[in-house]
Amino acid sequence: MKKSWSEDVYGIIKAKGISLVGTVPDGGLTRLLKLLESDPDIRVVTLATEEEGVALVSGAWLGGAKAVLLMQSSGVGNTINMLSLPAECKIPFLALVTMRGGPNESNPWQVHMGQAVSTVLEALGLRIFHASIEVEVGTAFEDAYNYAFNNGRSAAMLIAQQVIGAKKFSNTAA
Q: Three-state SS string across the chain, please?
């Protein structure tokens, strides 16, 4: 049976010794979060906002642990100011971002940030790794991990919307 991208990422998180995961939950992350939450060696912290995740990941590193931030592309905007923390302190920072706002997006509120994520993160000094199809996710995540933790730098791995699927959105009141 073929492994899902969630199982690939979970396996890498486990193998690399990441023990803390910060997240603002998203439907595209559901399977991965369930795998992580079922592992007694990994602590999943649900955040109120993604910028808290930057501080959580940085603090984990300063305390001797490895962490990753999991979020949706619409949350990237919330991290912009905080991303100076790992950059200036040379703290390895790793984020996995499920993308929204692609060609099949039905929620207009997702489009603007979805289109800007890669450009914004690159402008802030993050190295971007992409996965456009499911089989690329594991390799791209491991490459992002290696870049961040081998170089004391910031990296983000972006999972394309076609991998996680488009969500239905209605702009009419129920």
A: CCCCHHHHHHHHHHHCCEEEEEECCCHHHHHHHHHHHCCCCCEEEECCCHHHHHHHHHHHHHCCCEEEEEEEHHHHHHHCCCCHHHHHHCCCEEEEEECCCCCCCCCHHHHHHHHHHHHHHHHCCCEEEEECCHHHHHHHHHHHHHHHHHHCCEEEEEECHHHHCCCCCCCCCC
pTM of the model: 0.90
Amino acid, single-letter form, for residue 131: A
Give me the pLDDT at residue 109, please.
74
Q: What is the pLDDT of residue 38?
A: 98
Highest mean pLDDT: which range of 6-10, 74-78, 117-121: 6-10
